[in-house]
Amino acid sequence: MEYKDTLNLPKTKFKMKANLAQEEPKLLEFWEEQKTYKKILEKKRNLEKYILHDGPPYANGNIHIGTAYNKILKDIIPKYKSMKGYNSHYVPGWDTHGLPIEFQVTKNMKVDLSEVDPVELRKKCTEYAKHYINVQREEFKRLGVMAEWENPYLTLNPAYEAEQIEIFKKMFSKGYIYKGLKPVYWCANCETALAAAEIEYHDKESSSIYVKFLIKDSLAEILPDSKSEENYAVIWTTTPWTIPGNMAVALNPEIEYSLVKTEKGNLLLASTLVEKVMKEIEIVDYKVVGKAKGKLFEGLKCKHPIFNRDSLIILGDHVLFTLLPDTDRRIMR
Questions:
Q1: Chain centre distance of CA 90
Q2: Same-domain status, 153 and 219
Q3: Whole-angstrom Cα distance, residue 7 to residue 14?
Q4: 319 lies in a domain?
Q5: Domain-embedded: residue 187
Q6: What single DSSP character describes residue 95?
Q7: Percent of the chain whose predicted confidence (pLDDT) is above 90
Q8: What domain range includes position 156?
Q9: Is the CB of residue 94 less than 8 Å from the CB of residue 51?
Q10: Are 300 and 215 part of one and the same domain?
Q11: Could you tell me the pTM of the whole model?
Q12: Cα 224 versus chain centre, distance
């Protein structure tokens, strides 16, 4: 006698083995043959509507884990609403414009942007997008997602594009569209504008430097002990590549600055930083010969350290003492 025959178990037609790889396609085929989704909508047509419009995926390739995850989560909502007594519609859609599709066309169809005619490129993009609309639709169906698959919204449809133009017209008529000045991210490789969300930044370490600007004007009226020796305004920067574009040296009007006599000339810098800066630039023998508030130096001319042009001393409240992260070193910027 079989031991299992001695057990008092319920009888069921469900198989012990799920065998989903073979059974799921049959179930999905059954749903499609029976028009299950349409019958659900028809049965609930007089109930309160709940419509989910799909935030569309790009029609630029097969679905991946992100698009699958997104679609499954969205599918849960209308199914739940339907069971809660709503006439629940799920309207799928596809984004068929833009760089993701053009990029795949240039890569997979070997299209050279420098040679292809713009109209021909658009035709190829349309052809590519329509192909992957069908591919993705079948893949989403395979996930068991119920939606109006035969009536999706597509951004390349003329009616959809006309609606976009109509909305643009309304925005323009209300003054929301105007010409102004704004930096736009640009991809040199793809030759197109980029959205801020598409920009990724990488950490970059750069050397910080001290730079001395020869003060061309006399300091005698401000600091009598400056004498006739060469005097320099010292700046510190973490962006050395900006020095060629420098047009001014900024001092804080209320901060006290010291003129320090050294072997490298007289250096003008913030009084509270004299000791630290001298240590960093490895000058041992130095002497403070005068002190004055930053506002007294406004308008003096300095010589640019690279080019034959002036860099004026200007005043700015943004010139502050700041504590660098993870250090006790205060710097002036």
A1: 30
A2: no
A3: 18
A4: yes
A5: no
A6: B
A7: 68
A8: 31-165
A9: no
A10: yes
A11: 0.57
A12: 54
Tokens 């001395």 found at: 212
H-run or E-run covering 106: helix 99-108
Alpha carbons within 13 angstroms on the beta-carbon side of residue 151 total 7
Whether the Cβ atoms of residue 127 and residue 70 lie closer than 8 Å to each other: no
Residues 271, 273, 278, 284, Cα dihedral to 10°: 60
List phi, psi (to 5°) of 71: -70, -40
Give the pLDDT band of residue 319 (cuts 50, 70, 90): low
Question: Which residues touch 100 (CB under 8 Å, ≥6 apart)?
Answer: 58, 60
Instruction: Indicate the SS3 state at residue 37.
Output: helix
* Closest CA relative to residue 155, chosen from 95, 101, 102, 99: 95
**Cα–Cα distances in Å, from 295 out to 26, 213, 252?**
83, 18, 7
Q: Cα separation of 80 and 88, whole Å? A: 9
Q: What is the largest CA-CA distance in the chain?
A: 117
CA 153, CA 122: separation in Å to the nearest integer?
A: 19
